[in-house]
Design brief:
Helicase, Ruva Protein, domain 3, Zinc Finger, Delta Prime, domain 3, 12 strands, alpha/beta, five-stranded parallel sheet, EC 3.6.1.-, Rossmann fold, three-stranded parallel sheet, binds adenosine-5'-triphosphate, phosphoprotein
Length: about 675
């Protein structure tokens, strides 16, 4: 069976929903990252809602609920509530719901905390890593938002309210007391953070130290723009982890360095750097007076493309200027829209750079594809993710705490105003890098959310406990970053490719009778938020295609599993699927029927000329005329014979063909 075709079930496509951790809005999992980019712009830090995750943290003995612990239950109402999603690849998840099964939680926990290999720290010797100079990037360049924050900009809501609180409470308790009361904190002020704050020398009842401003500064930097955008590199020097595509000795790199840009299709999973590479090409081409025009296939119309082409023609003929046209998500253009570029790419009016998360062999016109070089970008490796995160952490002036040196925090207990106000555990950086699953945008968004949520929860705690608001010496722990990530849409590709890869791996593992691998691929899909009914439908197919008559009850099992999933939904139905998958992996296999049927189909498709008529004796003869024409004549009614009947059932010209013996006609 081929499992690479799109899964198009509009009903199910409405179910694959996740919740935005900032605005709490439900949406298709595929949209969460782009939504977060917008949402972070719209919602100031004080409005982020870390409490949702934190509440769960309080309710569950095992600590904060990992994002991936979101459970789904299929229900009609959930389906009705959700808007339809545009593509099937983005479909198929139900409403998030907390699972309460202990065993299940345990397995998720182990997923959430991937071990660092042999306990080694991954944080590299980044040029500016662990420096304590707030607000500066590795390059020494300060992000615009930081610069603005440093100036006499209007004060934010949080800042003003914090000041008010301070005035109301007076010169009250400091952070030291906060530690003691940590258990009352509805937010994130958990034991480890309190401990660390004490270790930093944050105890004592003094007023907030001027260092608090640095935390404010960080918050303002993050409020203005998604961190992923702020950190988007302009040069290949800051572009990490894609050495196969643009490493030192690659053809593409030399072409970029000599500014000979061919038409390109950049293919890779979300957040791996497709747009960023185009951005780097753009920065480079501007230096060489090449026009760089960007369109997104999600909203551009064919006319927009025509306009760009027309202008490119003018620029070429009047000013001898080249135009590079970057089309994000090019797979969203249909075939005829893609045809619009074809002659213009061919004659060099435009250099096309398309970015796609989908396999271009299926999604991009063959003719267009043959005129472009396909660059395959991969999920960013963990080391590259750490480097990217460290670049951001340094630009925010956040200090990384070395967990192998427990005295480290103490060394920051002086009152120097140049000290960093915010700290992050090194293992938190590692965890973020792991859980981001090669998606730099997800990692940077996760970092941004963790920082904002930490600042915001600290503020909430101060408000509740009547203490003065002092965002100085805030510690970001591993748990904070886990909450900053929505694991369900990170471990499992929301754009489609991984969806088909995983179901294909499951199918092949069952076919190969590998029950371990079968269970692994099943869990990987379900834990990633796959729709259980999608998996169940595939099992129904497998039952006939691969097991067939070797064990006809497999089909009954699969249909029962499908119905069971339909009745009880996730998380309860996962064990039904697991049982079925293991049954199938262990079952004897037979493709006899499947291949014989394929032989019949091939026979029909390859037939030249009109198909042979149905033999007269096999035809029904409900009227006299038909009887007169010979319909049904000579037909031997089998029940009337005690012996096997010698009778031909195939058309005359197929006599002797045996589809079960691989004979094709
Ligand atoms: N290789 C990389 N090196 C450094 N930073 C990166 C890299 N890849 C991505 N990033 C960071 O992640 C952010 C998102 O990356 P980008 O927009 O390029 O992803 P994409 O592959 O185009 O994703 P999508 O398919 O979802 O549009 C960038 O703004 C940048 O900050």
């Amino acid at each position: 069976m081929e499992v690479s075709g799109p899964e198009d079930d509009p009903f199910l496509s409405q179910l694959h929903q996740v919740q935005c951790p900032v605005c709490q809005q439900m949406m298709p999992a595929a949209h969460i990252n782009s939504h977060l980019d917008r949402c972070l712009l719209l919602h100031p830090a004080g409005h982020a809602e870390p409490a949702a995750g934190s509440h769960r943290a309080g309710e569950r003995a095992k600590g904060p609920s990992p994002p991936g612990a979101k459970r789904r239950r299929l229900s009609e109402s959930s389906a009705l509530k959700q808007p339809a999603t545009p593509t099937a690849a983005e479909s198929s998840e139900g409403e998030g719901e907390e699972g309460d099964d202990g065993g299940e939680t345990e397995s998720r926990e182990s997923y959430d905390a991937p071990p660092t290999p042999s306990g080694a720290r991954l944080i590299p010797d980044f040029p500016v890593a662990r420096s304590s100079s707030p607000g500066r990037k590795g390059s020494g360049k300060r992000p615009a938002a930081a610069a603005a924050a440093g100036s006499a900009s209007p004060r934010s809501w949080d800042e003003a309210e914090a000041q008010e609180e301070e005035e109301a409470v007076g010169d009250g308790d400091g952070d030291g007391d906060a530690d003691a009361d940590g258990e009352d904190d509805p937010g994130h002020w958990d034991a480890d953070a309190a401990e660390a704050a004490t270790a930093f020398g944050a105890s004592g009842g003094g007023r907030p130290h001027p260092r608090a401003l640095a935390a404010e500064e960080i918050r303002q930097m993050l409020q203005g723009k998604p961190l992923a955008d702020t950190m988007r590199p302009d040069t290949l020097q800051d572009y990490f982890g894609q050495s196969k595509a643009v490493g030192q000795d690659t053809l593409l790199r030399s072409l970029l360095e000599t500014n000979e840009i061919p038409s390109l299709i950049l293919w890779g999973p979300p957040g791996c750097g497709k747009t960023t590479l185009a951005h780097i090409i753009a920065s480079n081409s501007k230096k060489h007076s090449i026009r760089f025009v960007t369109l997104s296939a999600t909203n551009a119309k064919t006319n927009d493309v025509r306009d760009v082409i027309k202008q490119a023609q003018n620029e070429k003929s009047f000013f001898k200027r080249k135009t590079i046209l970057f089309i994000d998500e090019i797979h969203r253009f249909n075939k005829s829209q893609q045809d619009t570029f074809l002659p213009h790419v061919e004659c060099g009016t435009i250099t096309l750079i398309g970015a796609t998360t989908e396999n271009p062999s299926f999604q991009v016109n063959a003719a267009l594809l043959s005129r472009c070089r396909v660059i395959v970008l991969e999920k960013l490796p963990v080391e590259a993710m750490v480097t990217i995160l460290m670049r951001a952490i340094n630009s925010l002036g956040i200090h990384v705490l070395d967990s192998s040196r427990p005295t480290d925090p103490l060394s920051h207990s002086s009152n120097s105003s140049s000290e960093p106000a915010m700290f992050i555990e090194d293992k938190a950086v590692d965890t973020l890098a792991y859980l981001s699953d090669g998606d730099a945008r997800a990692g940077l968004n996760g970092l941004q959310l963790a920082v904002l949520a930490r600042l915001s929860s600290r503020k909430m705690f101060c408000k509740k406990s009547g203490q003065s608001y002092s965002p100085s010496r805030v510690l970001i722990t591993e748990n904070d970053v886990k909450e900053g990530l929505q694991r369900s849409h990170i471990l499992y590709d929301r754009a489609g490719e991984e969806h088909y890869n995983c179901i294909s791996a499951l199918h092949k593992s069952m076919r190969g009778s590998d029950q371990n691998a079968s269970l692994y691929w099943l869990a990987r899909m379900l834990e990633g938020g796959e729709d259980p009914l999608y998996v169940a439908r595939r099992l129904v197919r497998f039952a006939s295609e691969d097991i067939g008559l070797a064990d006809p009850s497999a089909l009954t099992q699969a249909v029962a599993a499908y119905q069971g999933c339909h009745f009880i939904g996730m998380p309860e139905c996962e064990v039904l699927l697991a049982q079925c998958v293991v049954y199938f992996a262990r079952a004897p296999k037979s493709i006899e029927v499947y291949s014989a049927y394929n032989n019949v189909k091939a026979c029909l498709r390859n037939h030249q000329g009109p198909l042979p008529p149905v033999p007269l004796h096999l035809r029904n003869a409900p009227t006299r005329l038909m009887k007169d024409l010979g319909y049904g004549k000579g037909y031997k009614y089998n029940p009337m014979y005690s012996e096997p009947v010698d009778q031909e059932y195939l058309p005359e010209e197929l006599r002797g063909v045996d589809f079960f013996k691989q004979r094709r006609c």
